[in-house]
UniProtKB/TrEMBL annotation:
It comes from Microthlaspi erraticum. Coiled coil: none annotated. The chain crosses the membrane at residues 352-370. Gene3D superfamilies: TolB, C-terminal domain. Residues 1-34 form the signal peptide. It comes from the Eukaryota. Keywords: Membrane, Signal, Transmembrane, Transmembrane helix. GO terms for cellular component: endoplasmic reticulum. The keyword Signal applies. This is SMP-30/Gluconolactonase/LRE-like region domain-containing protein.
Amino acid sequence: MKANMSSTRSSRSSSVISIILAVVLVGLPIPSSSTNRHVINFRSPGLYPEGLAYDPSGQHFIVGSLHSRTIHSVSDAGVIQTIVSDPDLPENATILGLAVDSTNRRLLAAIHSAAPLPPFSALAAYDLRSGGRRIFLSPLPSLPGDDEDIARDVANDVAVDYKGNAYVTNSAKNFIWKVDRDGAASIFSRSPVFNSQPVAADADAGFRDCGLNGIVYISKGYLLVVQSNTGKMFKVDEETGTARLVLLNGDLVAADGMARKRRDGTILVVSQKKLWFLKSQDSWSEGVIYDETDLDVEGFATAVTVAGQDRIYVLYGRVVEGIMGNYKEGEARELFGIEEVSSEKESGEDKIWLYVLIGFGFAYFCIWRFQMKKLITNMDKKTS
Ligand SMILES: *[C@@H]1O[C@H](CO)[C@@H](O)[C@H](O)[C@H]1NC(C)=O
């Protein structure tokens, strides 16, 4: 009789466990680990893309090209299609930073011609609704008195606000241009703070002369920008262009592209070697680098983007190999990659997952206690 009773009890509690387990397994996102990261390989001979953006309407990535005056979409599965082919750009010009203006369904591209090509720095806007028709191609003005043949501007990266204004970094001269929705370009911010920081001691020739680089627009009326050769970050007022140094717990040496996770405001900064994860509690007077992930150095990551709300991807465009051009005619690289990167420390979802799990554990404990109580009362009744 006693044995019989205990077996009923254990079968009942095990069925409760399986129900709870089923709920846990079906109802909750499985935390992603580094082993099931999404890797996209795509094929395009000699592309060597530097810029990367994500177009939420088209649900695909967008990449530029080192010398072919083209911009392409890349699907989740690695299918590549040409969305812009613009023969009005100077021959062999490079597409650098890219930004999608979701409000106006436009694509903005920073265009630059490196030496020995004639100097050229511009911002181009293309209409994503009409298959990539160009809206404007605006040359970016040099500082008064600057001789472009001696030291040329470098239009490097671009961010866009909700009104369609674009902000373009000049990595050679450490200032920021603004290009309005109609394509009118001006010098927007040339704060002295951009020239106030020492070049990092370990800055090598690859980025020693590269100043302001990655830029993101924050909806609260300011921009964040990083500087490659000093590893510093600046907060720039959207109205006045005044800039302040953001206090960080480390330097982002060789920082290149930037992106922002809309869900929680995490800022991502990429370099050839790593991806940094940053957060701030006070609208970026101070920030903290709370995690970093090592990247494939050979892939030479130059850009980072966020797909959807929170999937982070870097572009392995192997640009330096393309710039060196030391491959034989017809032997340019064909394969490039876009790879998902995650931080073990930053996944807020894991925490929710943990809380829910604890909640379930507590619920299970209550059910178990309730049953035990019933059982003991029953047993008491029987024995008495
Ligand atoms: C563009 O690149 C091609 C291939 O390297 C070269 O043959 C051509 O001369 C270049 N054009 C200019 C204007 O430099």
